[in-house]
Amino acid sequence: MIAIMGAGAFGTALALTLGREGEVTLWARDADHVTEMARTRENARRLPGAAFPYGVRVSEHVEALRLAQTVLLAVPMQRLRAVLEEHAGTLAGKTLVACCKGVELDTQQGPVQIIAETVPDATPAIVTGPGFANDIARGLPTAMTLACADALIGAALQDALSTGNLRLYRTTDTIGAELGGALKNVMAIACGATIGAGFGESARAALMTRGYAEMQRMAQALGARPETLSGLSGFGDLILTCTSEQSRNMRFGLSIGRGEGFDPNITVEGAATARAAALRARALQVEMPITEIVALLVAGELRVDAALDRLLSRPLKEE
Ligand SMILES: NC(=O)C1=CN([C@@H]2O[C@H](COP(=O)(O)OP(=O)(O)OC[C@H]3O[C@@H](n4cnc5c(N)ncnc54)[C@H](OP(=O)(O)O)[C@@H]3O)[C@@H](O)[C@H]2O)C=CC1
Ligand SMILES: O=C(CO)COP(=O)(O)O
């Protein structure tokens, strides 16, 4: 059986697509939220307008996860460690599939390493790539990456988690998969800020391309395979997130560029990840000027016009 921890937009979308073809348990921490979802068969708080199919069960009891061999972890990146620590006993020995995108601010670790540290006898994996919760929930076609260092378990997960509208491609390169998903959000903030400030589409294309070069540099410094970054989890998600206003990271960037406020309750993974990735890049001595600038922008330590000046005044070099 499959279970999902976290009834946010993405956890709910995964429950919907899996629940159309089998049984899935969706766990949320808030009992009132669970009661509401059970009564209305909808998650009006996080993914309104998408009716739960028959196969979706909801629960606020972590014991409901005991029967599941595979648990998808769909909580925000900066909360992942706390959730795993709190429920490590229940999750021991299971296959734990991170569904979050980012780098932990305090440790500069990704989700797979956090799973390995907090639930050492679990098998970690990650699902990441271009796919908006709304699209998945509506049954629109999507393709993402499933990464698991254990190739046999990865193949079984690929079968178990692929659905009629969610096609999973498989890799054993968990480092590349999680870095692609984490860093594309940073680039989406940069692109949003650029568009919001009125710098134009050409500037966005330049940022996406140079941002992709940064993603490759860091990934390779950490031992990822270049082809993982050029796949769905890297290049694919970079395109989606940097070009669509459905993306919260993109919209957050737009608000920075326009000098407007942004609802702090909206999950924007790229904000903390920019700061974490900038720290990691410095420690690795990897050059990541766009990431550095996004880290300063989100901290309010740099204005968008000064950020542009800083990028344009860098020494000219070979591509
Ligand atoms: N939305 C999307 O299109 C996609 C999102 N993702 C990734 O999925 C991850 C989650 O994003 P998303 O679902 O959109 O975020 P949302 O903001 O929609 O939801 C986050 C959910 O996490 C829950 N949560 C937060 N902290 C805890 C905790 N300590 N214990 C239990 N539950 C907790 C929240 O519960 P509560 O409601 O009680 O606050 C909420 O239901 C992110 O890393 C994102 O990058 C990946 C692909 C697509
Ligand atoms: O990761 C996503 C799509 O692949 C969702 O992006 P946002 O978190 O920016 O909304």
Relevant CATH superfamily of the largest domain: NAD(P)-binding Rossmann-like Domain
The total tally of domains equals 2
Using the alpha-carbon principal axes, give the shape: globular
Give the SSE string: EHEHEEHHEHEHEHEHHHHHHHH
Q: Which fold name fills CATH's third level, the topology of the largest domain? A: Rossmann fold
Q: Which structural class do you get from the secondary structure elements?
A: alpha/beta
**Largest sheet composition:** 8 strands, mixed
**Low-confidence runs (pLDDT<50, min 5 residues)?**
none
Q: How much helical structure, as a percent, in the residues? A: 40-55%
* Count of individual helical segments: 15
CATH architecture of the largest domain: 3-Layer(aba) Sandwich
Strand content: 5-15%
Task: Round the Cα radius of gyration to an integer and report it.
Answer: 19 Å
Strand order of the largest sheet: 3-2-1-4-5-6-7-8
Question: CA-to-CA gap between the ends?
Answer: 49 Å
Which compounds are bound in this model? NADPH dihydro-nicotinamide-adenine-dinucleotide phosphate, 1,3-dihydroxyacetonephosphate
Q: How many strand segments?
A: 8
What's the mean pLDDT score? 97
Per CATH, the class of the largest domain reads Alpha Beta
